[in-house]
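Hello,

I think I submitted the zinc ion job twice by accident. Can you confirm which output corresponds to this input? Input:
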Amino acid sequence: MNPLVEAALEFVWPTRCVGCDEHGSLLCPSCREALPFIDPALACPRCGAPFGQRVCTECSTAEGLRPLPFDGAVSACEFTGTAARLVVAYKDQFERRLAPVIAGLIFEVIPRDWVRTSDSITWIPSDAEALRRRGFDHMEAVAEELAAIIGRPASMLLSKANATDQRVLDKQERADNMRGAFELIAEPPQRILLIDDVLTSGATLEGASQMLLTAARTVHVATFARVW
Ligand SMILES: [Zn+2]
Ligand SMILES: [Zn+2]
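Support: Only one job matched these inputs. Its output is below.
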C-alpha cells in the first residue's frame, strides 16, 4: 500500500490491539504474553488437548486408546479470551493483517521434527459461502505465511464438498457429516502438515486427514486454538 494512504488510514482508523483495544499494534506485547497458551509439556501427546498430561480423557477410552486419524495434533492456545477475539477479528472482521501473527503463533507450538520432516503445508479450505463472505481463504493466507517461516511450500490439496453447517450438529452428527466432506484435488506429498484455525470437535480435521491419508504417509495437525 502507498505509505501516504497507509498513514492517512492509520490516522482515521488506527490499528488497535485485539485484546485491549490499545492503539499501535494488532496484538500488543502484554496481550500476546497473556494469551492462553497450551503448555506442550502438559498437553496430551497424541491430540494436543490441554491438561492431558499423559493421555487425555478423550484419547483414552474404556476399550483402550481411541484410534486417531492423524499422526499427532498440537494447538497453540485454548479458544478463550484474547485468542478467541483474535480468531473473530481475523475471520469475521476481515483483519487480514492477522495472518502472519496467527502463523507465527502456530509455528511456535509445532514440534521441530514435524517441521523438519514435512514435505508441504496444507490447510482446511473455506467453503464457497465463506469465501464469498470474506473474499479470501483465511487459512490459505496463514499457510502461506507459515510456508515462508519454515521454508516448505503451501499446497492446496483439498476442496470442501457441500457439507451441512457444523454448528447445528451434535458431536456424532459432525463426525458423520465430515466423512466424505473433502475431496483430494492434487496428488499429496508423503508427509503433510495440516493446519486450521480452531480445533472444535476434531471432526473437520479428522475428515480432512482421512482423505489425505488415502495417498499420503503421515499427517501432522497444528491449529491456532482449541476448544476443550
Ligand atoms: Zn493489548
Ligand atoms: Zn488426547
